[in-house]
């Protein structure tokens, strides 16, 4: 992670140098990075937050954001300096003109995290570290941009208006950038000169981005699995197996994996037929289950052991269970991708019949050969031998006994009957009435247990009750006071969790319900499936709430209801870009659309509006101060803000690229966020230059001077220069 942060800083500095063509100007802007990062460490310590993979990822995401405000300030100072102002005048006026835009941009970036801080879900704990890191660093970078940058610029810029400075030419880069600028300005000119063209641009850009978001939104996952150096198997042998039998299964698994042990082969680096070497191996056998696990010498290759485990574990017929690399988030056996299908009802035999039917439907739709794993709890059969005594009411009445008295007698000879609680030396202990230990040592002797009747006669239990040899469940599970059999389902890694949930719902639960369920039997989905639904609903509301909060902040700063609405329209552009960025990453490495990746869209809400803010503020500055006509003001604002928009966008993108491109500890946690933010920023930077001028052209009245526009769109005097 530290290497990625340093590489991101270096790449961001390279982009700035490419645009500014000046070591001094690049150094001024990049000075915001170390100051803000050090200040962020202090802020996190004051708030009681620790430095971990998540918080460091937040700082890495913020590397490009830290220079955004400084870029805008320095670019505006440089523009005024080239127009002929002295360095001091350019520094003062340049910082003042963009102060409002920078404040709005920083606040919109920060306020989107406020709802996440009060999110009382599992993912909320992960979001808080990123939120605190980004918030502290962005606010500190704003302070640096309005204090340090103008001061250094005034001292380092040459006197004389900067006209004599000849920038270094890069032929290929310059020609490409000039061509893009010309194309953008031509489109802007057409939009401001024709409302029909402007309307077409708005409809095409907004419609295409919204449609792309709707059509290509990936199927959801809950949380990333992580990359722990551990593969474990939880297997459940067929009913009736005892401890010796389950130990035999564990011994067979050990024998299959022993050739991969380091201590057996000696060389920890050599492959065993292409498989990684095992550093640690363990197993624990219980009468009803076996737990096996292993770690590899190379932590990055531990997942390669899963097929080896599966082959050894499921060799025993009738065995169920999970073989997985355990999640760092899920505490259950099935991890962060488990689906629990609860089958509840009053009759255990009816529950078993429904559970067996459900397993056959699951295996037909989600075959185990494709990687799906199932674990029934407690089991699918009556695997525990059981003796049931059914008291005969008539015979009991003839002997003057009640059913309770009969059952208490049997309990006394079986497990013992608690009759009182006594105090011995200050300790309270149970007083238990028990028969001789060998009285019920064998199943055949149960019928011979003595029972004393009301008349004092001693009769065998078999004379008062019918005794049946049968089988029962190995464990009795209850959920909401109902007997329950739970089918734990772990879908194949290539199948999205949302897709698996939908298939279980439509092809298993609904089909069983259509075929008819026994009286009182209910089917419910829980586990990660339930948490995914709750978290997705909460995250959708968080994104909508973030949009509302950003709009309100902009409305307060601009004292206008119209301009913030124009700026907010740029958000759908980012969602389409975020989905495209995630799709590109999935071409090379699997990156699911989990709830942590969803945070990338929340970050985009606060960052993509920054480009629109710059254009809108600059347009109103030209209308109010420079008295330009509306069309000219929009064209001039777009022309002036193309360079800072692309400078800030590219520094953000290259600052995050190492997090996406280079694997490392915890990369599966933040790679999805980075791909979404990079894709969203990249696409929105291009489309915003087409959309915002067209929207401004439609909303602002076209005038020959700036006076009439002032009457139509209220822009406060104190913000007019900004």
UniProtKB/TrEMBL annotation:
State any single GO MF term: xenobiotic transmembrane transporter activity
Keywords assigned by UniProt, alphabetized = Membrane, Transmembrane, Transmembrane helix
Q: Which residues cross the membrane?
A: 6-23, 28-47, 53-77, 98-118, 130-157, 196-217, 536-558, 565-589, 595-617, 645-665, 677-700
Q: Which GO terms describe its cellular component?
A: plasma membrane
Listed SUPFAM superfamilies? Multidrug efflux transporter AcrB TolC docking domain, DN and DC subdomains, Multidrug efflux transporter AcrB transmembrane domain
Alphabetized InterPro entries for the sequence: AcrB_DN_DC_subdom, Acrflvin-R
Q: Name one Pfam family in it.
A: ACR_tran
What name does UniProt use for this protein? Acriflavin resistance protein
Q: Which organism is it from?
A: metagenome
What lineage does the source organism belong to? unclassified sequences, metagenomes
